[in-house]
Structure formats: structure tokens, C-alpha cells
């Protein structure tokens, strides 16, 4: 068998990741975070469960990569700090409102409370890139950027958990105003 045939066998990795990430968000949206098991995600993606476990050691690790893909980089547009912060708040509020994203976000955080390995993944792969981007854009000390992230995401995820609906409209505006006053 020619070497080029062996290397082209199977689905390309990026295509597979996109398929798995879409299936993960669909499963979380349809079944809830707890119901979106690796078995169900694999079935929804049309792959073997072993395919998932070769790439991700746990559902939590898969969901973290899925969220990183769904969220993309934090927008740090604007000239003034207030513009950058307001843009970031509205961006994460909108992302949490996308089907499956808010529930995946809340579920993986909840699992991390009792899973030190998942906390390490969340801190290193998820929080750190966003903290670094915001810290560079805002020129704030580490602890203030972490407080900003905690207040905003904590509030948005709390609303999602308490109502099943993402925070929208005037409530996002009020949250933005409150946070901007605190960080002025």
C-alpha cells in the first residue's frame, strides 16, 4: 500500500473534531450535560466511543475543547478599557446563549468542583488563554482580571442555571454597567 493512502485513511482530524464538537453541543442541548454521555456523543457523531477516548481522556476534557472551539478568542476590540470590557461581557453573554454552550459551560464547571484533574484542564486550557488576552488588553493585575472573569461568567451561568435561559437584553446591559462601575 502506498504511504499516501495510509496517511489519508479515515476522516481528517479537523473534520472529525468539528463533527464531534457539533454532536457534543447537540447532545448537551437535547439531553442536558449529565445525559450527554460519551456513548451518546459518539453515537450522535457517528464514531466509536474509542475514537473519542483516543483524543479526550474524559467527557470534561472533550467539553473543554468543544467550548474553546465554540467560543473562539475573546474579542478585545475597542480603544478604552470600558469598551473592551463591555465587548467581552456582551460576547460571553451571547456565546452562553448559543444552543448547548451554556449548559456545557455550567456542567463542566460543576463537574470540576469534585474533579481535580478537570479543574487543572479548565484552569490551564480554558481560563488561562482568556485571562492572558484580557490582562494584556486591560492592563490590570492578575487578581482583578480573574475577578472580572468570575463576576461575569458566574453571573451569566447562575442565571442560566436558575432559569434555564441565558441572560439577555436589558439584564446584560445592567450587568455591563455594574461591572464597569466596579472596575472604573
Polypeptide structure, described:
- With 184 residues, the chain is mostly helical.
- The chain is built from ten helices and no strands.
- The termini are far apart.
Helical percent range? over 70%
Question: What shape does the CA trace take?
Answer: globular
Number-wise, the strands total 0
SSE topology string = HHHHHHHHHH
The fraction of residues assigned to DSSP E strands is: under 5%
Q: What is the terminal-to-terminal distance?
A: 65 Å
Helix tally? 10
Rg over CA atoms, rounded to whole Å, is 18 Å
Low-confidence stretches: 1-8
Helices, strands, pairings?
Blueprint: H1 3-8, H2 13-35, H3 38-45, H4 49-55, H5 59-71, H6 81-96, H7 101-112, H8 116-138, H9 142-163, H10 169-182
Helix pairs in contact: 2-3, 2-5, 2-7, 5-7, 5-8, 6-9, 6-10, 7-8, 7-9, 8-9
Descriptive keywords:
globular, disordered N terminus, mainly alpha, 184 residues
In short:
This protein has 184 residues and is mostly helical. Helix content is 78%, strand content 0%.
Amino acid at each position: 500500500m502506498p504511504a499516501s493512502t495510509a496517511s489519508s485513511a479515515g476522516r481528517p482530524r479537523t473534520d472529525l473534531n468539528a463533527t464531534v464538537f457539533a454532536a457534543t453541543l447537540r447532545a448537551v442541548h437535547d439531553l442536558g450535560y449529565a445525559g450527554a454521555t460519551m456513548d451518546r456523543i459518539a453515537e450522535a457523531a457517528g464514531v466509536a466511543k474509542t475514537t473519542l477516548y483516543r483524543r479526550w481522556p474524559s467527557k470534561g476534557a472533550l467539553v473543554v475543547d468543544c467550548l474553546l472551539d465554540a467560543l473562539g478568542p475573546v474579542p478585545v476590540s475597542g480603544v478604552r478599557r470600558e469598551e473592551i470590557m463591555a465587548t467581552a461581557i456582551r460576547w460571553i453573554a451571547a456565546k452562553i446563549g448559543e444552543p448547548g454552550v451554556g449548559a456545557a459551560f455550567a456542567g463542566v464547571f460543576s463537574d470540576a468542583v469534585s474533579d481535580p484533574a478537570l479543574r487543572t484542564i479548565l484552569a490551564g486550557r480554558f481560563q488561562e488563554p482568556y485571562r492572558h488576552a484580557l490582562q494584556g488588553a486591560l492592563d490590570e493585575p492578575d487578581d482583578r482580571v480573574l475577578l472580572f472573569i468570575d463576576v461575569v461568567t458566574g453571573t451569566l451561568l447562575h442565571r442560566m442555571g436558575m432559569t434555564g435561559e441565558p441572560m439577555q437584553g436589558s439584564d446584560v446591559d445592567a450587568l455591563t454597567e455594574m461591572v464597569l462601575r466596579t472596575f472604573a
